[in-house]
Amino acid sequence: MTRTTEFLAFFAAQILETIGMWRIFVKCGKRGWLSVIPLFRQYYLGVCAGRDGEGRMLALLEAGVDASIVSCIFFEVGSLQYMVASFFFLLVMIPYTIFRIRVCFGLCDAFGRNRFWVVPWIVFDWLCALIWGLIPSFKTAEGYPFDEEEVAPELSGLEVDLDAPGLSINITRRTAMSFLKRKVLLRDIHLNIPMGHMVLLLGGSGSGKTTFLNAVTGYEKAKAVITLGDSDVYKQYNSMKYDIGFVPQQDLVRGSDTVYRTLSDAARLRLPADYTIDKRRNRINDVLDTFGLTPVKSSLVDKLSGGQRKRLSIAMEYISDPTLFILDEPDSGLDGVMARSLFEKLRSIANTGKIVIVITHTPDRVADLFDDVIVVAKDAMRTGRLAYYGNTIDAYEFFGKRSMEEILMSVNRKEEGGEGRADDFVRKYSALKAGGMA
Ligand SMILES: Nc1ncnc2c1ncn2[C@@H]1O[C@H](COP(=O)(O)OP(=O)(O)OP(=O)(O)O)[C@@H](O)[C@H]1O
């Protein structure tokens, strides 16, 4: 193909695409002539797809793609300018394709078409634009433009007092990049947990419980201020490491070590360097006693029962005598009796003046052992929000439910089998707090 033919082919595709887009815009209730302006065309395609932000990004990226294509056509093949333009083209093509896919997905939803259409849209956009624009059976889906779910508003003024004793959490937001888009994982979580309280962290799958705990411990920082007693967890992260214990879901124990050896290794890692050997030995023996592991201290970890193994994992973190003790599903794989006995142990730890926060997927068998419950729920924008924090007894009344599992179902999204009322409760809870503060 000669340069002129290439240019004519590019130009013809643009014209055909414009015609198709004109009709698509009209079908979506927008002004057709907007398709004549190349960059507007991409933006309004995003608007038609119900993805304005992605449409805006697509328009910007298309400017880059078009500029590099035109440059490649005009520069001498093999020249430095040609190579720079080609490199730039490859560079912008990656995000450009990703945003096109996202907009195409939205368009398929808007027109009630299978998402496999994204493939022809990416390869022959001008042809798809003509088909979707000119063929009458391609029309917007029933209910289009889809009603947006009403998202609970952003909150302000509900920050808790950082000087209050205990754990004060003021998370403004926690964001992460996902698929070239900044995603808000958590927003507006403000609460204060007094010392000596055992708190249940409740939330559906993907609601942000782990993200929340990571933000609280400073493991993955958020835009937040977290204080434990007089210390700022983020600013004094290194010195706080002995004060915060985190027990992950998965056991991190070696089967070929004895129980004592496992705890002794944990003590070496987690106790301050100035601990004498005697002090360290005493601490290990105390912890073995606390978790009922003294009779099996010489046994290999592989020979322990599920419950003993779990208690050992918890003991490893407890060795540093943390003020804040966090456990992610410590009862997974345990039967009701073993789980109950484990949670009673955690209750007795809280009773010594520590803060214990626990995630469990079977809360009702141990709900009476908790003082408070934090309910984190995904709002309409899929952001983790605080739907409730307070006394467990008051929680039943607040949600109008009789069990923690029912509370969870009320905030879980409909597509997950829940009632999809997260935003209602976020609103209700913030009104309650604002009222309380007035
Ligand atoms: N670094 C990250 N980048 C992008 N998205 C993330 C990141 N971390 C978490 N997410 C997303 O944030 C949401 C919350 O994740 P999180 O692991 O906190 O949920 P969870 O409530 O602990 O779920 P589960 O109970 O299933 O463990 C999920 O949609 C997850 O995909």
UniProtKB/TrEMBL annotation:
GO terms for molecular function: ATP binding; ATP hydrolysis activity; ATPase-coupled transmembrane transporter activity. It is a multi-pass membrane protein. Keywords: ATP-binding, Membrane, Nucleotide-binding, Transmembrane, Transmembrane helix, Transport. GO terms for cellular component: membrane. Pfam families: ABC_tran. SMART domains: AAA. It is found in: Membrane. It comes from the Bacteria. The chain crosses the membrane at residues 7-26, 83-103, 115-135. Its main location: membrane. Residues 166-403 form the ABC transporter domain. PANTHER family: ABC TRANSPORTER G FAMILY MEMBER 28, PROTEIN SCARLET. This is ABC transporter, ATP-binding protein. It comes from Ruminococcus albus 8. The lineage of its organism: Bacteria, Bacillati, Bacillota, Clostridia, Eubacteriales.
